[in-house]
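Work through what follows:
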Amino acid sequence: MPKVSSTVTRSKAVRWIAILFGATFTAHGAPGNGETAAPGPQPEQVQTVHLEYQEAGYSVVNCSIPIVIRSTPFPKEPALGRDKVIRGNLQLGSGASNPIAFVWNRTAGKLYLDLNRNLDLTDDPAGVFASQAGSSPSDYQVFDDVRLPFQTPSGNRRVLVDLSFLSYMSQSNCSAAVRSFWQGKLTLQNKDWQVGIIENDFNSSVSPEGCHLLFRPWEAGNKPFNTSAGSLDTFPFARKLFIHDHAYQMDCTPEASGDNPRLALQFSEQHPALGELNITGSFIQRLILEGGTYLVVIDNPGAKVRVPMGGYSQPKVWLKKGAAEAFHDPRPQPSRGMIVIEEKRPAVLVAGGPLTNSVVVTQRGATLNLRHQLLGAGGQVYTRPHRDRSHPPTFAVYRSGKKIGSGKFEFG
């Protein structure tokens, strides 16, 4: 099992990325990304990977936790004196027995959780937490390494989170940086993969819909990831998945095993009709097509790939060359049209690098507003997943060959 690391590599400045992505470079297709034989009657192959609970030193997803404020004290509480206090329940999951009572002592910077759910806030030694150094003494405080237990139809579960509490204008909110997920090792096409399930909330339902699927090479297992980081190591769970030239029907079911529950993730091979997609562009690490019968994931594509026939929305694209990375995660735009894969008519997709530095100029009175963009081969806007704010991109303005102004872009 890969060792979990909390170190995140910072990306380089936009200027350096653009230089790297603009250099001469030939993308090589992964083995098996060429033409595939026409599908025929074949026996179904089923493979199951068992996912174990895993804790990480970094957040894998961020979500809000609904809270219900309580105006009266609990039956038993620690000594609070005249401190500023907020009481209530953390609403975990949909089960009636899952809410956890809490007392947030804003003055002392302490959080008390009723982990055994007996409404006694004094008998849970593992449920007392001190806020992070530097947290505000009253309005905003963060509590690390909180393990929240909750119940599901398949048994007891837990989740590791860092909890953030905010009190502003008589309103109180709680959010969680989740630091646990489910992972296992899967061997497909003679290659080992780290696969996992990341739950986006604390719903006690056993359905994988609404979750994210982690799918990346096993040797990359010590690299931090997050469902919103843009690397596309994770993507929304789909019951029909086409990845590395193979199609699968996917099912995820819980397995009760006492205090160590796990999930069973099943891959049942399918054989849909395929069509050709021609890709123009470079440096593509991973490309994801959504909207069709299958969610399509393509790693290191060559100039031609074959994918299940159907209509797809504009793709998510992750570019990588060396340490430089950028991604394109578009919002649905009907005006851009669909990518239609047919049996006898190849479709064309222009995506990837090289990237070009671009500036969008808008005028407001006598002021010119300049906005920096990284544009790809198809005109898509790309973003760096980890911005280095200490090295912002710069610009210069020339008139008749003479420099008349320069400056730096600000983050935001």
Summary: The radius of gyration is 25 Å. Confidence is low (pLDDT under 50) at residues 3-39. Residues 356-408 form one domain. The chain has three domains: 14-54+187-350, 61-178, 356-408.
